[in-house]
Amino acid sequence: MNDKRQPVILSSDQASGRDSQGSSLVPMLVAGLVLIAIGAVVVMMFV
């Protein structure tokens, strides 16, 4: 029927369709945790 089938991609990095060289969510996660820590210190200074 269809001789031009797509090859099966077993690597999750390729299967996700995301650019492997692009930025990931890790820097955003780290920045969020830093901001939460700074906010907690500011709240503790007033309590």
General description of the model:
With 47 residues, this protein is mostly helical. 53% of the residues lie in helices and 0% in strands. It is built from two helices and no strands. The protein has helices spanning 12-15, 26-46. It is rod-shaped and about 70 Å long. It starts with 11 loop residues before the first helix and ends with a helix. The model has no long low-confidence stretch (mean pLDDT 78).
What's the total helix number? 2
User: Distance between termini?
Assistant: 72 Å
Unreliable spans are none
User: What sequence of helices (H) and strands (E) makes up the elements?
Assistant: HH
Describe the main β-sheet briefly.
none
**Helix content bin:** 40-55%
Structural class: mainly alpha
Shape: rod-shaped
Number of strands: 0
Radius of gyration: 21 Å
- Give the mean pLDDT: 78
Strand share of the residues?
Answer: under 5%
Name a few traits of the molecule.
47 residues, mainly alpha
Outline of this structure?
This protein is about 55% helix and about 0% strand. With about 45 residues, the protein is mainly alpha-helical.
